[in-house]
Design brief:
With 357 residues, this protein is of the alpha/beta class. It contains 14 helices and 13 strands. Helices cover 42% and strands 20% of the residues. Helix 1 runs parallel beside helix 2 and helix 3 crosses helix 4.
């Protein structure tokens, strides 16, 4: 039996959480009919990628993080109109997705929600709103044990379904697309926001260059901190390349991936790098240790000297980089396949629809 599932995403950008929906739609295309609902102002890539995965896409004016009554009502009507049996609401963080959760409840439809990351430091009132909205779900997916721990502390009952991805297709000429300079190339991929810690990478880059003048640094992504980072003197050693389509295909051009994040769920870019055999240096936060296992180098958060030391050590040890890359490829294939993620999510759909868990 083919199930009709409505995918609801209020994100105004195409990042890891939105890529998750695309991979899920691809993985379950044979057994599920997906109708995706996204904001009117979502980037073209969101609709294009979901449609490529086989989903029908509707854009809803006003859909965003805030639960405006008129938007919630229109969304509930649209959920009924597309004939959804089940609603799957995608939450970038715990403050996201409330309109979708309320609309599904108003439409009388069972709901599955995926929570990608828990943002620290939110006030108790805002947390209470998120907790009440999520409490109505038949099933709550947490993409990592770290995210599940947050949900459990808030009285919710999450099920861990770790992210999965097909191996990226490496682009020809990826190195030239990232840098024309010879030397050891360190890169990052992600939204230019405080969460991702690019200011910490900038500090570390200066320390690395003092020992390894041949080291280059690039970051792919766009976001609210772009102008500030480019203007920051400490970032003079880092080139911010802006948005690049299919950024994961360029990872193979790096000698090392740096992830100086302040908090994370289970980052897709780490899994993509593992699939491609690119060594990873990352902070010990959220689900990053779950992704890397013993296949990367972990450093404390908010510690540019430790990050710099790890980069310098790996730059000078090609044998260790080769060993990490081999183990990472094996781990990615074994633990983070799109097929496994699809099977586990489909089982939760059946549970939410009243079937067996």
């Amino acid at each position: 039996m083919v199930r009709r599932v409505a995918l609801v995403s209020a994100a105004g950008e195409f990042a890891g959480a939105e890529r998750y929906l695309v991979v899920l739609a691809e993985a379950l295309a044979a057994s599920h009919d997906f109708a995706a609902i996204v904001p009117e102002k979502a980037p073209p890539e969101t609709a294009a990628e979901l449609e490529r995965a086989g989903a029908r896409v509707d854009r809803l004016e006003g859909l965003g993080r805030r639960p405006r009554p008129g938007v919630v009502l229109r969304l509930a009507r649209l959920l009924r109109r597309v004939g959804a049996e089940l609603v799957h609401v995608n939450l970038t963080d715990q403050g996201d997705g409330v309109p979708g959760l309320l609309a599904a409840r108003l439409a009388g439809l069972p709901t599955v929600a995926t929570l990608h990351v828990a943002v620290p430091g939110r006030g108790p009132a805002r947390e209470a709103v998120s907790r009440r909205a999520l409490a109505g779900c038949r099933a709550l997916v947490a993409v990592s044990e770290a995210t599940a721990a947050y949900a459990a502390r808030n009285g919710l009952r999450p099920t861990v379904v770790r992210n999965g991805l097909p191996p990226p297709v490496a682009a020809e000429g990826a190195r030239d697309a990232l840098s024309a300079e010879p030397g050891f190339l360190v890169g990052g991929v992600g939204r230019l926001s405080r969460q991702k810690g690019w200011d910490l990478l900038c500090e570390a880059a200066g320390l690395v260059r003092a020992e390894r003048p041949d080291a280059g640094f690039v970051v792919i992504g766009e976001g609210e901190e772009a102008a500030a980072l480019v203007a920051e003197p400490a970032c003079r050693h880092v080139r911010f390349l802006g948005y690049r389509p299919a950024a994961s295909s360029l990872l193979g051009g790096l000698d090392l991936l740096a992830m100086p994040s302040r908090f994370e769920g289970l980052p897709l870019v780490a899994i993509e790098a593992m699939h491609l055999g690119v060594p990873v240096v990352a902070t010990w936060v959220g689900g990053i240790p779950e992704a890397l296992g013993d296949c990367g180098v972990l450093v404390p958060p908010e510690d540019p000297p430790a990050l710099a030391r790890a980069i310098v050590d790996l730059a000078g040890d090609p044998a260790r980089r080769t060993e990490l890359a081999a183990r990472a490829r094996e781990r990615a294939r074994a633990l983070f396949s799109a097929e496994r993620m699809g099977r586990e999510t489909a089982a939760l759909y059946e549970f939410a629809l009243g079937g067996r868990a």
